[in-house]
Specification:
By secondary structure, the protein is α/β, with parallel strands linked by helices. The chain has 19 helices and 25 strands.
Length: 764
Amino acid sequence: MSRLGDGSHAAASGRSAHEHATVRFGGSFEGSPRSTEQLAPPRAAPSAAPPVRAGAPAASATNANFLKPGGGSKLLFNEAARQQLAPYAGAAGTTVHFTFGSSVMVDFVQNWLHFARRAALKPLLVGAADAALLSFCNNKSVPAAAISPDLDVWTYERKPAQEGVYQIKTQWAYFRHHDSDFLEMGLVKVAFLWELLVAGLNVLISDLDVVWLNGHWARWMAYGGAEPPLPEASLLAAADILVSTDELNAEADLAGRRPSHGSDLNTGVVFLRCTQGSKAMVQAWRQAMLGRKGDKHLNENVNDQSLFQGVVRGAELRGGELDELLRRSGAVDRLGLAEATSTRRVYRALGGPPCLPQERCAPSSFTFGTLPMRPFSGGHTWFNQNVQDMAGHEQPRNEPITVHFTFQFGDTGTYPHGKRQRAREAALWAVDPPEYFTEGVFVALDGPTYSEAEQAAVYARFPSWSPQRHMHMDAPQRQAVRDLLGLATAVGGIPVLPSLWCHCDRYWGFLKNCRFPMVPNMNLPFNCPQDALYDPTRWAAKGVRWREHTFLDNPNARPGVRVIRIANHHLRRLCRWLGSSQANANFNKLARYILTESSRYCPQEDMGGYGGGSFDWQNPFVAYNCTWGFHYPSPFPEGKAACSATGEQRERSSSAGGLLSSLLPPVNAAGEPLAGADGVNVAERPNSTTCPRIMLCDYNILPDGSMTKPIRWCNIEGYNGMKQDHLPATRAMLAKMPDGRCPYPPGDIPGMPGFDRRGHYIGA
């Protein structure tokens, strides 16, 4: 067996990170010289309801001519769309299942289609924002539509005749991370919605990063279908607009009120009933976007969703208004449920005129409600809270219907790596090619990364609110990942990440008892996704081949796949030697970069009285105290003495005895590692902390493995952005401290040794 003696690491496979198989909608996949049947992922077994034409009995009929050229629609439908939608032309109450995107997200388009078809959703329609995606859909017989090229989405007036289809032109690949382009994407999305509503269709739009687990949407959204609405949905099923939310607290969500503080409406899943109210909302939404055109203060947080928040807000319907809503929907048998506490509430808001500006009509109100967070789950509820396993998850009112990959990290302006990685971890990614599951040798950990005794010792030392509990428990996990990468490098294999655990939730705000404040009863620790601890974009940028922790449980990883399994206590005994000093040095550069992450944890319990009315983040005496991670684990030894008393003898033995003998540490007659085998007895870091108690941590690792700035221990040691006015006071204070540095905080009690509650040093 050969070993990597030239410094190579588990690197790129030669396949582009964006090159995925394409779904052939009979269940097989293309994208390689062979085409094989891919098994269904283990989660989300199909539970499809029959195709539903759902809506209020009084719904208007679909425009029978909207599919025809010259039929009045600004949409250009491909042949597959015309064939799928034709049976519904002229029918009343048809709901089209719609998604929208550009060619850079084509693999997410494929994934959305795979699960939507698996859930038996129909009719389906993909809105193509560029010609490349429309071409893909044409070639794969995917029902799709594009905006007519002579429509100006800003003015909604015709431009001089042009060939082709409307296209967004941008230098950014992933629009979510570009301000003006994402705003224009919103206008294009609204144009699609308007044209579909005008055609007489209800629209159930979901983002490309939404996975449909089953087809039970109508139980929450519509009367008149094969499945009647749940009692809790008696009012929702009559409202004009329904929208998912970022609500995280299941108890707070029960009544269906606007999300609690810190949560928002989320346009990942939106139902628009074909009513005047829905048209009024869409036009108000469009006007809100137009109002930001040319705004110099645009950023990625000003987008169609944030502007939707400002439009969809209003007063709760009560009393006779509720009765009127139900009577209009023909649901008089539900009148007794209108005021029930278990029934999700509905609201009324003032929209715009339900017509185009050129047509002139009076403004109209619309009704709206929020979809429940357990059936329509987000990234935090699915991956952190495990809503799919919560008590009562099998009941219809709690059964998960969709998963939206929100609350994740690791997306860039090029590609949403974090979303894809979470989908893979949950076995909700269906577009990897067959060789993803068969290529090479996989190296996996057999068992946990730390023992119960190790956890008990850390828990006894640090209270539940302290991020240091999280940092100390992460250290052995990060060491195991390093060693798996090393072993995979040595054997030319692909590491399978171990199951990772978080003992503190990752949150951009202030934690309470190491949790989001709005989710006080969340279970800790929890089995967390990779992007909670690592940045997958770094791994992708370096061409590292790796697999998600659920990989070997995926049925597509067929029996016979070659796997090296090793328990962590044996992994720790292997010699950290890759064949040469240069190979170890190259590996260390890679490991430093991909095993470092910059993430802060700011406990409310350790604010020290800071953050009051005089808070100024540039003032180190009132700035917040946050613990930062994650530091890379100790590097492999780079000297020739690694793993034996004589490095030259070690290299000879590895050449003569093969790779595995070179990995094993030298032992005595009792089989115990010899003293001085520094490749085995690496001095490990006890925790993954970088800056232990500071507002902004300037420490990080660059792609070449070099460090940005030294680690600071407290705010007065300085950070980027600190006002220079405070330098004299901080320097005078630091001069009084031992060795001119802040004392390292123990982390088991709030505060830092020698500081008062105002952040001033008073001595030991």
